[in-house]
User: What shape does this take?
Amino acid sequence: MTHTLHRVGTLEELKKDYIIFIMAERGYNLEGSKEKYQEFVRKAQELGAIKIGDALHGNILSQKGLDNLLENITDQAAPLHAIFNDEEKLKEMLKWLKEIDLGISAVISGLADHVHKCCQEVGISRHTVEHSLGRWGRIEKLPTEEVLKVNTMCGHQMVTVGMIKKAVEDIKAGRISPEKAADELYVSCACGVFNTERAAKLLKSMAE
Amino acid sequence: MKIDKDLCIDCGNCLIYCPVDAILEEAGVIDIDFNECVECGNCLRMSNCPTDAIYSQEMEYPRIIRAVMSDPYVVAPNTGIPGRGTAEIKTNDVTGRFKRGWIGMAVELGRPITGVWLSDVEKVAMAISKHGMDFETINPVTAMMQDAKVGKFKDELLKEKVLSAILEFAVEPEKIPALLKTLEEVQKEVNCVFCVDIASRCNPDLSVPHEEIVAKTGHWISLNAKTNLGLGKPLVKED
Assistant: This one.
């Protein structure tokens, strides 16, 4: 159901972790969505999105740059995502979305109350909201909270525990910077929703 | 996924890329536990194998289900959506999947970390189906059921393992407390982790109906959420 909903983090960490995405739906507004997705991506880039990803074709790093990402977009029922670390930038994106009126669904994944406030400030009335009720079952099998914070930023679990532990070891040994390690982890996150800025801080803290 | 043993030099570079630890090293020899592999393709895409020894073997039904539910690049045939094939609230402003007066729920089995055998997914589906809800039809997991009314899966699928499988449905608000109670019980019977989601169409005053319901049951609810902004067109007509 949800590739960004179950992110683990403190209030302070989540204040810098917002994903905004748009998605067309088969049988409703799929036709002509390619250009709308492209407009969205260009605006997100202009506003300083941390990273951008296409759930169907891969993220900005796996596709080796913005030009390829833009070119590969199709009329698709798969979202385009942009990550922001700042509510003001998010609000700018919201203002733009309201004005440009792309006509395809837009969703923000992030702190519910903060998102609601941002929406109200720009005159958008939230439509539907979805929360996580947490992790159930054999939770004793889960890794530490810190590892889980990094792992759950890729909802499809392509940033594995082994990759995270290796990144921490490499940072500790001085073989790689936290920022570069976060970018390397990001490549495997197909949708591109893995927040590399947040990940770099977490990896650095785990390596200390 | 398989490893061509004629090519593999047992360097172990691929070990860290498996999300379910299905790539094993035994006495210096690397191989994939085919039964545990969920066919997500992460090792093939990411490990940069120096001899190109990792390959995706031909997959037929039922094994292909593993790739559909685990590889984010595979598009689910019955929904046309990649990454486990669900749209849920993302487009609720145009589809009206979750209407006012109903609560949307999902049980995401296998995530994070553990993956899940479909026999465990069936266990949960059968337990919650007793509350008389309909599983979402535009969902690849519902398509795996032989009898969706009772949550019974097709027998040939029960021995398949996937990275995650999402049971999705809408229920009347008054059923939520009993449903959560059922999940509390059935969680003891499965060998995986699962996440639970709850969603609803906002009230006219923009409050969120399920927040009050969850507060009454005393369950933990996340600070973060997914918010559909209602900007899609045509906007669903509501009664």
